[in-house]
Amino acid sequence: MSRSKQKGTAFETALAGYLSDVVGQPVERRALKGTADDGDLHLPTPGGRIVIEAKNHQRMELADWVAQADAEAGNADKRFPDVLGGVVVHKRRGKGQPADQYVTLTLATFLTILNLI
C-alpha cells in the first residue's frame, strides 16, 4: 500500500471512530467501487445518512472534492433512499484530532441537513 493510501486510510479510520463515538452508532466505511463509488464513510443521522468524502492532502482542491462528494452522494442515493447529501471532511494542517478537521459542503446540502434539526 502506498504511503498516501496509508495516510488516507488512517484518516478515514480516525474519523469513523470519532464520529461513531459522538453519534453513538457505527459509521460505515465504504469500499471503493470505481465510477460507482458512494463515499468513504456513511454517517447515520435521525433524518438520514450523510455521505462523507475524507481527504488528507497537502493541497486543497475544494471545488473538485465537493463535486466528488456530490457525485458519490448521488451514487449512494441509488442504493439508499435516505441520503441527505455529500460533505468533504479534509485534514487541517497541524491538527491531529478528528474534531479539529474542516468540513466543506454546498449551501444546498447544508440547508438540507439544517432543516432536520
Characterization of this structure:
- It contains three helices and five strands, in the order H-E-E-E-H-E-E-H.
- It is α+β, with helices and mostly antiparallel strands and 117 residues long.
- It has a single domain, classed as Trna Endonuclease, Chain: A, domain 1 (3-Layer(aba) Sandwich), CATH 3.40.1350.
Major sheet description: 5 strands, mixed
| DSSP helical segment count | 3
Count the beta strands: 5
Poorly predicted runs of 5 or more residues = none
The CATH class, by name, is Alpha Beta
- Coarse shape: globular
Distance between the termini: 40 Å
**Could you tell me the strand content as a percent range?**
15-25%
Q: How confident is the prediction overall: mean pLDDT?
A: 94
- Helix content percent band: 40-55%
Rounded to the nearest angstrom, the radius of gyration is 13 Å
CATH architecture: 3-Layer(aba) Sandwich
SSE arrangement, N to C: HEEEHEEH
Tally of individual domains: 1
Spatially, the strands of the biggest sheet line up as 1-2-3-4-5
Output the structural class.
Answer: alpha+beta
Write the layout of secondary structure elements.
Blueprint: H1 3-23, E1 28-29, E2 41-45, E3 48-55, H2 62-79, E4 83-90, E5 102-104, H3 107-114
Parallel strand pairs: 3-4
Antiparallel strand pairs: 1-2, 2-3, 4-5
Give structural attributes.
3 helices, Trna Endonuclease, Chain: A, domain 1, alpha+beta, five-stranded mixed beta sheet, 5 strands, 22% strand, 117 residues
Quick synopsis:
By secondary structure, the chain is of the alpha+beta class.
